[in-house]
Amino acid sequence: TSSIGKRNTSFVKNLGSGSKLVSFMSALAFMLISLRIRWILTPPAEFEFREPQLTQKQGQNSKSPRIPRIVHQSYKTKNLPTMWKDTPSRWGKTNPDIQYMFWTDEDNRNLIATEY
Fold it and tell me: What angle do CA 13, 18, 21 make, to 5 degrees?
């Protein structure tokens, strides 16, 4: 057996039953996929949101947009997790022209029961 073969064998033996290698490879794959998804979904630093400029022909006949500017957020209860607690106030501060609406699971069930 060549020295390369011996080194590969000893490396595999050091891993134990192989489950460590599978766990490591799974974690590595998950990390690489997560980084790729984050890279895809992150807008470039020079990204700037611009309102579309609609003409009369396209249906803009007043100052209000064709699609209502409303952000809907839903969670199971009114008690948001810590990471989302300040979402309502942030929306109000950064987007004062956008209406913010919060819906609990109970609100959603009532909506379905009354409207559908």
Answer: 105
- Assess whether pLDDT exceeds 60 at residue 85: yes
Q: pLDDT digit string (tens) for 17-52?
A: 567 778 888 888 888 887 777 666 666 666 666 666
The enclosing H or E element of 70 equals strand 70-75
SS3 of 102, please? strand
Tokens encoding 13: 């033996």
The three-class DSSP label of residue 56 is: helix
**What single letter denotes the amino acid at residue 28?**
L
Q: Look up residue 52 and give its two tokens.
A: 């579309």
Distance of alpha carbon 12 from alpha carbon 29, whole angstroms: 19
